[in-house]
Predict the structure.
Amino acid sequence: MRVVFMGTPEFAVPSLEGLSAAFEVCAVVSQPDRPRGRGLKVAPTPVKVHALELGLKVLQPARIRDSEFLEEIVGLAPDIILVAAYSRLIPPAILELPRLGCVNLHPSLLPRYRGAIPIQAAVMNGDAQTGLTTFLMDEGYDTGDLLLQVSVPIDPEETGQELSVRLAREGAQVLVETVHGLHAGTLVGRHQPLEADYTRPLRNEDLILDWALPAPRVRDFLRALAHEPAALTLWRGQPVKLGRAEVRPGLQGPPGTVLGLEKGKGPVVATGQGAVLLKELKPAGKGWMDGWAFVQGRELRSGERFGSN
């Protein structure tokens, strides 16, 4: 079984490791190296790093439709192409190449949460479960025939990052099982419903917390984005990133107002309905700190406002 794997971020690494242990991975395709981090130094993608450690051939086309890249993929003669978080639509010339098709691993129960941020969307909406889906890729965006689907519960305190790590690990096994099923002829695709929920990439303005949301929605918004890219608010005119929070029902005040300080824990801030205890904050230019350290280090007082100058 000759496999070509396509993926870029850390989420795709467990899939690469699982596939390389089970099949012949003849090449790995990843996004080009790009500037990353505070120093904007050019760095390889996580998938490239692990592929090289495994001794695998790595391809990094600037454009996936380039004729030179297409010729190289054709020459590899893959039986199947597997995709996990590659972040580019695959052209028909590649989709039609392998005899078993091109298969994508998606971290949701499609057709729910098609698109760019299925993990964050599930947490942000307070869902009790999400899942993993493998599907046969077509020219649409997460629209192909469904293969395997596995439900995964979401812990009420779990962050988007934590859930991503867990889904990546479980998704690797789902992808391997999918390949075995297709190879044995025991797995057949089924059409997706036309109705779907779509998610789009987060923009900077999408990270700004709306304090008028009810307290449970505020908590879920914060944990969905913790700790990267992290929700944002203003405090004393400066941006502050927010991490985990706990709901404090029964308290009320103007949204964003500090209602009190829980000793040893942090500030309690009013929302549109109820309040939240801020457990983790990251001031501009500083590292993450717990809520009480933020209170003590900045002499935060009741009556101050988050989200305004």
